[in-house]
Design goal:
Elements (H helix, E strand, L loop, with lengths): L1 E8 L1 H5 L3 H10 L3 E8 L3 H7 L9 H8 L4 E9 L1 H9 L12 H5 L19 E3 L3 H11 L20
Antiparallel strand pairs: 1-3, 1-4, 2-3
The structure holds guanosine-5'-diphosphate and magnesium ion.
The site of guanosine-5'-diphosphate (GDP) has 12 residues, from helix 4.
Length: 162
């Protein structure tokens, strides 16, 4: 099924000039860009986006991290895109993210390390929606409907090998 997912290149990704590199991976995988913008994140927006984590001990570090500089927010679409993108992004903790994933390849800077106190953010470079419900909620938080662009690419055409 065709799905849309909400992706955020977090402040460390923008600061490290990894925006093009990350987007290139998604385009190479055949995913379609439906919307994109660079913006600063207000504390209120962080609380909406991370609503499932507000109240947890580590939440203040998450908010400090996501509001620390501009982020690149975008919507990608494709067949089974949510699962595919999460596989490309890799595990939450960069130390556990496999080589070949975005976090595994680029998010070497990771605090706290497993077992260390939760007083610092896990700087893992990128966010991607985990489920269809989460994707729908997150896209609505970051984009209005008229900012989402639907279009066909030549590669969308069905190819018959018969
Ligand atoms: P994700 O979907 O892989 O990004 O992971 P989660 O939805 O579980 O967490 C959202 C974000 O909160 C993560 O990307 C981390 O930046 C941060 N985070 C999650 N768990 C922890 C934790 O145990 N400690 C700290 N400090 N940050 C965390
Ligand atoms: Mg998550």
């Amino acid at each position: 099924m065709y799905e849309k997912s909400l992706i955020i290149i977090k402040p460390d990704g923008v600061q490290r000039s990894l925006v093009g590199t990350v987007i290139n991976r998604f385009e190479n995988a055949g995913l379609k860009i439906h919307a994109m913008k660079l913006q600063n994140v207000a504390a209120e927006q962080s609380k909406k986006h991370y609503s499932e984590h507000v109240g947890k001990a580590f939440y203040p570090t998450v908010e400090e991290y996501i509001t620390s500089g501009p982020v690149m927010v975008f919507v990608l679409g494709g067949v089974s895109a949510i699962k595919k993108i999460r596989a490309m992004v890799g595990a939450t903790e960069p130390a556990s993210a496999l080589p070949g994933t975005i976090r595994g390849d680029f998010a070497h800077q990771s605090y706290p390390a497993p077992g260390e106190p939760d007083d610092k953010p896990i700087r893992n470079l990128i966010h991607a929606s985990a489920t269809p419900d989460e994707a729908a909620a997150e896209i609505a938080i970051w984009f209005s409907e008229d900012e989402l662009v639907d279009y066909d690419k030549v590669t969308d055409q069905q190819v018959s090998f018969k």
